[in-house]
Amino acid sequence: MLAIGTVLAGRYELLEKIGSGGMAIVFRGRDEKLQRYVTVKILREEFIGDEEFIARFRSEALAAARLSHPNIVRVYDVGQDGTIYFIVMEYIHGDTLKEAIKEKAPFDTKSTVNVALQIASAISHAHKNHIVHRDIKPQNILVGTDGIVKVTDFGIARAANGATMATSTTAMGSVHYFSPEQARGGYVDEKSDIYSLGITMFEMVTGQLPFQANTSVAVAMKQINEELPDIRQYNPKVSASLEAIIKKATRKKSDERYATVEEMIEDLTKAKNDINHNFTQVSSNSQRRTLRQPEIEYLSAVDNSRKQAEARRQEQLREEINQQPLMEEAMRRQEKQPSRGLRISKDDDFENEYEQAEPVKRSRRPQFSMQQKRNPRREEVYEEAYERGKERKVVVAAVATALIIIALISAVGVKAFGTKMGLFGADEKVIVQSFIGMDLQTAQEIAEKAGYRVVQQKQDYSERYDKGIIIEQSQEENAEIKKGMEVGVTISLGAETQEETPQLMPNVIGKTEDEAKEEIKQITGKEPAVSYEYDEEAEMGMVIEQTPNAREEITTASNISIVVSRGQEEKFSIVPRVEGLTQAQAEKALQSSKLKVGDITTIESDTVEAGIVITQTKQVGEEVPEGTEVSLVISLGPVADQTQTPQENQTTPGDTTTSDNTTTQTPPAQGNKTKTYTVNPPAAGVTQAHVKIVKIDDNGETVVLDEQKILPFSVPITGSGDGQIICYIDGVQMWTDAF
Length: 739
Fold this sequence. Notes:
Strand order of the largest sheet: 1-2-3-4-6-5
Number of strands: 36
Shape: elongated
Number of helices: 17
Strand content: 15-25%
Helix content: 25-40%
């Protein structure tokens, strides 16, 4: 068996085994390329040399991969790694519908309809792509934690326009969900999936399988012969509409079921809203079949004329007396054969369903010899008795006709059916198949269908096969044996465990991941489980924790794990607005945001005064890693006028110089004006902060706002002349704007 941790095709890592069957082992894996969990189904080793089986494995996987539907498990990849053949599928976080039924059944009507609609939608998509699933059952239906239902395992699916006869027993689905035509090995089409869905719905609403027996052959016989049990005896609360849908989907004759899955979906949709209405209809032909056909034919031929009726009775009497030995012989033959409860309907051909025959009683009519038949007095006595029991005689005649038909076809029909189901021909030969790699129950079911038995002879240890798996068999593959014989098998006890001397756990903290794995593997023979965490101090790839601790005793069965450093966790900051600030203010704002000041470039500007930031290289509000450099462009002021000669005591407009070299400000005669400013959060996630807004205008410096505020917000500011507005958030100057 493949070891956990094996990587297939350099991409799919096997994490844990989650299931196994007769032909494949299923693992939960991880797609290392796309970093997602997947389900990996791997063909068992014993089938690797079978080219025909491998070709079918690939073609069926590719057929399933063509299906893309929200209620069908997606197939991502089909591949080969050396001698390993595998299928990669979508991984579903959840459980099978079978487990849900065990825990929660019986389901209510609403839940059953919702689940059935999703399954039916998946089947409909497959049928539109000419794929018949052939193995619809709760075990092949997954219910995700999100409530989405997905159909999986198209392992025995077939193209609807291809070979649709049931193949070997190893390719057949679960007998409890078989359609009658599957149980017979007859023609299988889309209606077989409808039948299996109906049985699945029955199990959902009742918590029970409709047909149960000690052997799979007996269950198959019940699928063919017995009608569906009364649903209400298990769940009286089931709605009338849902009950009718289940009954129609599980009719024995395929032409009486839903013609398509789409019709079933239509009725299920109606049943969601109208729970007490019967949306299903039974055709008039199927209703007529519930009557006994021979009796109808006989009664329809009776004329009102007493003379004609009397003539018919006389003729009927002679025929029945002549046929009495044949009837008794047919009845004796039926009693000797296990299939005495089977008869073929007159409406059927050899490919249609078998029906359960009603028990037939022997005729109590007196036995007449040829001389007695010619005695008028005897005939008169019989005629009087016949008049009194006319209806009973008609029924007897009908049953006799049916028994004669059975006697005539038994040499063909019963032989063919009995041979396939393993009921007749005890001296016939059968071919033994290989059971190595299967569990005992699966092998017994397969052998039973083929007509022989598999029994456990002994148990032995095996390094190759898990506990409970068959490792040897007394008859080789393809050996010819008589029907009914036993094939002995040896069951694996798993790998033989030997007492080992405990070793001391090494100290691997501070070593690289590869070094730690190799050191532990040399002691235990397996690699430890690995997890990863960020660490501010340890370098990436270094071991920072281990379990067990150093120098504790360990064995090959110990659970060993290590934690490897991912390095420092990368943190992010929001770039503040520094345009319009002085260089010192800009540097302080960037440092407060845990960013670095990059290159400083100076240029002359006629519009921005000297020392003010004109532009910044990172966009305001951008999320960047902490420590990112933000370069600035600083203004040098306007271009200097080379023709102007500096003068001492030069004054600026609006200033007046006094004799003592002091300057007084003369406010310009300008009117007041109002502008509205918006204050945004300084970083993502900040919704509240202390905001201080300062106005500088012709009237001097004024604090407009200084309080805790919910961000963002807008504030109108009124002042006179030209000025500047400065905004501080939590003590840090965030921006300035002209007034």
